[in-house]
Amino acid sequence: MYKVESDFECNGLRCMVTFGDMGYRCGYVGIPKTHILYGRDYNDYLEVKKEDIEDKKISGVFPLLGALLDEDERFRIDAFFNCHGGITYAGGGVGSKYPVASDLWWFGFDCAHYDDGKELDLALEYFPELSQRILSIKQIENMYPTGGIVRSREYVENELKDLATQLSEFTYERGISKKENK
Known about the structure:
The chain is of the alpha+beta class. The chain has four helices and eight strands; from the N terminus they run βββββαββαααβ. The model is unreliable at 61-65 (pLDDT under 50).
């Protein structure tokens, strides 16, 4: 269960912050059918090779291990576009209702990674019907604190603005190719 906390436009792309019943936020950027990446999964490979770019910061933890480059040193979408924890969602299209009803294709990220904190008091406020489960999670958190930084709505909005800028500027003409994960 989730609640839309923010819905705005940046660089002509729709951006959305959601807050989930587990106390974390997610961010989504919707691209139109005319965008070169429409309909592509986040683990598809771009025809952008490591040699084609200079000093580009790659996203997430796995790129540090070289896991998101294929044998031709091409980048996966989730590594090429920089955002909090890397892109962890791609979906949507005609008839889709997630994160909201639209025909956009959404690329998203979550703030439920190692060192991300939960905002359980807000979850109780947003989802009172789930209070028993949320209070149980709070009790466990009190006994075994995991800490972490709560990623605010403003933080996620700023990450979305950056991701929307990257996606709006992406016009790599050779497109992408799909490969099996290894």
